[in-house]
Write a sequence for this structure.
């Protein structure tokens, strides 16, 4: 039986997002929507690069975010203040994987536009990331990390292909933690 993540191409998009901000040791990176199918890879890839990661999610996602190596922070009103409290020395880069709130918060925290990226929306002056601007070989690189046990693939739910509608509906709620898998 073949298993394929519903967000297959997103693995490429996240590689492009990582390339925009180019994380490394000494970085503190704010990741918006850190527990989603894209976020679970974003957090781990930034951690593998040696960065500290602060990830936004609801309160119920906090443990899952910690398990990935992120420090959880609740999204919504007051985000800037909560991040300042967690990282008084400042945030150096940001990936907004949900909309524009995290990118706007990053600007307020003093992150320069060239170290902010979005994947789900566009903001003037900020470079968006998507599968189309991913580097050649990105998918192989990510697959290699998974095969080597360096990148975990949290599975939120499994569906047989006959129930693909339910899978898409679950995904569309935008509160999934990890990947939604369709079994073919
Ligand atoms: N441009 C591209 O190439 C590309 C590629 C792939 C994906 N995308 C887009 O990237 C986005 C992310 O996709 P995804 O599948 O990872 O996740 P998603 O389903 O869009 O979002 C799920 C995550 O977002 C969090 N979340 C919910 N409301 C939030 C809010 N107001 N602020 C911040 N986070 C919030 C949820 O946390 P809680 O469950 O804790 O609430 C959950 O972890 C989507 O818009 C997708 O279409 C773009």
């Amino acid at each position: 039986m073949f298993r394929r993540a519903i967000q297959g191409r997103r693995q490429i998009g996240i590689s492009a997002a990582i390339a925009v901000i180019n994380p490394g040791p000494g970085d503190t990176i704010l990741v918006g929507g850190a527990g989603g199918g894209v976020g679970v890879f974003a957090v781990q890839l930034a951690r593998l690069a040696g960065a500290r990661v602060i990830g936004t999610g609801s309160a119920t996602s906090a443990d899952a975010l910690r398990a990935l190596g992120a420090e959880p922070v609740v999204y919504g009103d007051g985000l800037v203040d909560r991040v300042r409290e967690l990282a008084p020395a400042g945030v150096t880069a940001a990936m907004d994987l949900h909309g524009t709130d995290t990118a706007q918060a990053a600007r307020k925290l003093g992150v320069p536009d060239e170290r902010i990226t979005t994947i789900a929306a566009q903001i003037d002056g900020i470079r968006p990331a998507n599968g189309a601007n991913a580097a050649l070989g990105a998918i192989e690189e990510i697959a290699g990390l998974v095969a080597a046990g360096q990148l975990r693939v949290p599975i939120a739910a499994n569906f047989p292909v006959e129930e693909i509608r339910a899978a898409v509906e679950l995904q569309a709620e935008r509160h999934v933690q990890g990947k939604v898998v369709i079994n073919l």
